[in-house]
Amino acid sequence: MFNYEIIQSLNDLELSLYRYIMKNIEKVVYMRIRELADEAHVSTTTILRFCKKLNCEGYSEFKVKLKLYLEENESTKVNNDTSIIVDFFKKLDNSELDRKLNVLCDLIKKASNVVFIGTGTSGILCKYAARYFSSIGKFSMYIDDPYFPRNYKLYEDSIIIAMSVSGETRTVIDYISNIKRENTTLVSITNSENCTISKISDLNISYYVQQERLGISDITTQIPVLYIIESMGKRLHNKFIVDSSDYSK
């Protein structure tokens, strides 16, 4: 309701009204226009102009939209059922997941560089993954800023591992679409394989857990992603040991 473009369009008086409404939103939904004008120290004309900028025909429609906005953003209980995580670990006997992890380990082992890309919570996991892989002997980097300058030479003979719950993060899609033109291999780790990032990847690993949101925030469990990261790292480390043993012979 109050998006960036609308707030940018407000003048000083309308911004004062906006601040009052946000601080007293539960009271405002029941106020008459004259009551709001007196409380916020603005004219009814300012209120009607404010409503128009929010694409409302009048004050009555504004109050209806404000009430809906309030209901949508009310605190709700989040699911604390561990069955989602238990179900994921039960599915780990899946031979297809095991095969993909082994293929990915082989790709990482051959790559000149490993770069993890993601934003938000996925960006934090990218940082963890880069550190974890570097700890087991495969130096890796992470990019959690989709506007990070693109040095295409860096990505030659690299493997890019994109992380995204939805697989539809536009800035990540734009970034990896550009670097995919180089001699790179793109792998994605997403909640579902039926997403844009998965479809443009050379290899996708999906974990399928129930997606959860709290308002605009995605609070889907990231335990499956942590498992995938650490499983890849340990498999890769074991491959290094085997290769070292063969070389010493």
From TrEMBL:
<feature type="domain" description="SIS">
    <location>
        <begin position="104"/>
        <end position="239"/>
    </location>
</feature>
<dbReference type="InterPro" id="IPR000281">
    <property type="entry name" value="HTH_RpiR"/>
</dbReference>
<dbReference type="InterPro" id="IPR001347">
    <property type="entry name" value="SIS_dom"/>
</dbReference>
<dbReference type="Pfam" id="PF01418">
    <property type="entry name" value="HTH_6"/>
</dbReference>
<dbReference type="InterPro" id="IPR036388">
    <property type="entry name" value="WH-like_DNA-bd_sf"/>
</dbReference>
<keyword id="KW-0804">Transcription</keyword>
<keyword id="KW-0805">Transcription regulation</keyword>
<dbReference type="GO" id="GO:0003700">
    <property type="term" value="F:DNA-binding transcription factor activity"/>
</dbReference>
<dbReference type="GO" id="GO:0097367">
    <property type="term" value="F:carbohydrate derivative binding"/>
</dbReference>
<protein>
    <submittedName>
        <fullName>MurR/RpiR family transcriptional regulator</fullName>
    </submittedName>
</protein>
<dbReference type="GO" id="GO:0003677">
    <property type="term" value="F:DNA binding"/>
</dbReference>
<dbReference type="Pfam" id="PF01380">
    <property type="entry name" value="SIS"/>
</dbReference>
<dbReference type="GO" id="GO:1901135">
    <property type="term" value="P:carbohydrate derivative metabolic process"/>
</dbReference>
<dbReference type="InterPro" id="IPR047640">
    <property type="entry name" value="RpiR-like"/>
</dbReference>
<keyword id="KW-0238">DNA-binding</keyword>
<feature type="domain" description="HTH rpiR-type">
    <location>
        <begin position="1"/>
        <end position="73"/>
    </location>
</feature>
<dbReference type="InterPro" id="IPR046348">
    <property type="entry name" value="SIS_dom_sf"/>
</dbReference>
<dbReference type="InterPro" id="IPR009057">
    <property type="entry name" value="Homeodomain-like_sf"/>
</dbReference>
<dbReference type="InterPro" id="IPR035472">
    <property type="entry name" value="RpiR-like_SIS"/>
</dbReference>
